[in-house]
Amino acid sequence: MENVGIYPDSVAYVIKEAPGVLTAKTEESLPEKVKYFADMNVKPKFTKDEILHVLTKCPTLIASYTVESFQKKVQFFEQELKFNKHHIKNIILKQPSVLTFSNEAMKEKWTYCYEKINASPSSIARCPRVFQCSLKRIKERHLYLKHLGHIKDEMKIDDYGLGLIITNSDKRFAEKVAKMSLDEFDEFRKDIDLNKNEENEENEENEQ
C-alpha cells in the first residue's frame, strides 16, 4: 500500500478496519483503483490526496471491491439517482462508503427525499450522509416535523435541512430541531408504529 502513497499510520488503520487486505492482492488491484479514480470523468478531477483519503477512509474499498464494481455504482448514480459529475465527486469524497451500499436501499432513500421531503438531487448530493441513515429514521423525523408544522408540503428542503433531519442523536433532533422533548418524539413514533400495525391487520383481513 505504501507504494501508492498510503502512509504507514494509514496502513495500520486500513488493516485494523479491513483485515481482508492482508489476503487481497493489493499490489495489483490497488494501483488499478487509484488509476480509476484519477481517470474518473468528474469535475474537478480527483487529486492523489483525495483518492488516498477515499480509500483509507473506507478500507473495505481496498479489501473487497473491484474497479468494475465502482464503475457500476457510478453508472447507477448517474442513471438512477440523476447525479452529475460534480455531485458524484462530492458524494464519494464526503461519504466513500456509498460505494459499498446496496442500490436498492439508496434508491429508496433518494426517492423518499426527492418525492416526499421535496429535496433536489443537488441537495441530496450535498448531504450524502442521508444514505447512511435508515429509511425508517428519515421517515419518522420528516413526519414528525410535518406533524408539528415545521415542514409544509410545498417547502423545498436544502442540504442543510436534510442534515438537520438526519442529526445523529434522537435527543438532539427532538430538542434542537423539533424543539420538543425526546419523550414527546418517542410517543409520536410509537403512535406511527401502532397505526402501521393496525393498517397491516386491516389489509390482512380484507385479503381474507
UniProtKB/TrEMBL annotation:
GO molecular function ontology, one term from the record: nucleic acid binding
GO CC, any one term: mitochondrion
GO biological process assignments: mitochondrial ribosome assembly; mitochondrial transcription
Keywords noted in UniProt: Transit peptide
Annotated Pfam families: mTERF (PF02536)
Keyword Transit peptide: yes
Keyword match Endoplasmic reticulum: no
Record-stated family: Belongs to the mTERF family.
Descriptive protein name: Mitochondrial transcription termination factor
Lineage per the UniProt record: Eukaryota, Metazoa, Cnidaria, Anthozoa, Hexacorallia
